[in-house]
Specification:
The complex is a heterodimer. By secondary structure, chain A is mainly beta. Chain A has strands spanning 4-7, 10-13, 19-25, 31-38, 42-51, 54-57, 64-67, 73-78, 87-94, 106-108, 112-116. Chain A has no helices and eleven strands. In chain A, the strands form two sheets. In chain A, strands 2, 4, 5, 6, 9, 10 and 11 form a seven-stranded mixed beta sheet that branches. Classes of the chains: A mainly beta, B mainly beta.
């Protein structure tokens, strides 16, 4: 099992450019999440998905869009990048079955470091 | 809204000694989960330990244990026999039990240094 993978690992964008971050998981998890991590801020939720074809806003959704066309993939898009979006982006997946010992745990990818100049 | 506070931005410990990292949280919920995540320089977020609020027994995972005080809304992490590989950022996180889509709410982290 590869777990949760993210593509790319690093990216530099100019202000106004667009890009898509790809997250893939092979654990058959229903739930997937995108977080951003800024210095001194911990991780904050951008968007999340509870299943294929569904997405919802998190704590800091502005400037981002997401899609979940396949259960195993969760895409994060930046339509017009801004310097304020310079951050490390983490994808996570998880299950929520109370009878499972792993209920409510989230498994994280290795992160993508994005710099917007 | 739920909040998680880690009051120690940095901590240090001697190898083989014990260290305790503090975490407090604020919630009006009675059923929830608490987690400690480790983030080494590689950036990978690694789940260290979890605690279910409805369980009174403190969770343990090898050298890692927690002191869960529900009434005080406190959830500290104790690392025994500290090793050099324990050096990392440690994040405390909270999640509601109701609703499987609920986000993790993270504290700002504690940087742990292990001195040889």
């Amino acid at each position: 099992n590869a777990g949760v993978t993210q593509t790319p690992k690093f990216r530099v964008l100019k202000t106004g450019q667009s890009m898509t971050l790809l997250c893939a998981q092979d654990m058959n998890h229903e739930y997937m999440y995108w977080y951003r991590q800024d210095p001194g801020m911990g991780l904050r939720l951008i968007h999340y998905s509870v299943g294929e074809g569904t997405t919802a806003k998190g704590e800091v959704p502005d400037g981002y869009n997401v899609s979940r066309l396949k259960k195993q993939n969760f895409l994060l898009g930046l339509e017009s990048a801004a310097p304020s979006q310079t951050s490390v982006y983490f994808c996570a997946s998880g299950i929520s079955q109370r009878t499972s010992r792993r209920a409510h745990e989230q498994y994280f990818g290795p992160g993508t470091r994005l710099t917007v100049t | 809204a739920q909040t998680v506070t880690q009051s120690q931005p940095e901590m240090s410990v001697q190898e083989a000694e014990t260290v305790t990292l503090s975490c407090t949280y604020d919630t009006s919920e009675s059923d929830y989960y608490l987690f400690w995540y480790k983030q080494p320089p590689s950036r990978q977020m690694i789940l260290v330990i979890r605690q279910e609020a409805y369980k009174q027994q403190n969770a343990t995972e090898n050298r890692f244990s927690v002191n869960f005080q529900k009434a005080a809304k406190s959830f500290s992490l104790k690392i025994s026999d500290s090793q050099l590989g324990d050096a990392a950022m440690y994040f405390c996180a909270y999640r509601r039990a109701q609703g499987g889509s609920e986000k993790l709410v993270f504290g700002k982290g504690t940087k742990l240094t292990v001195n040889p």
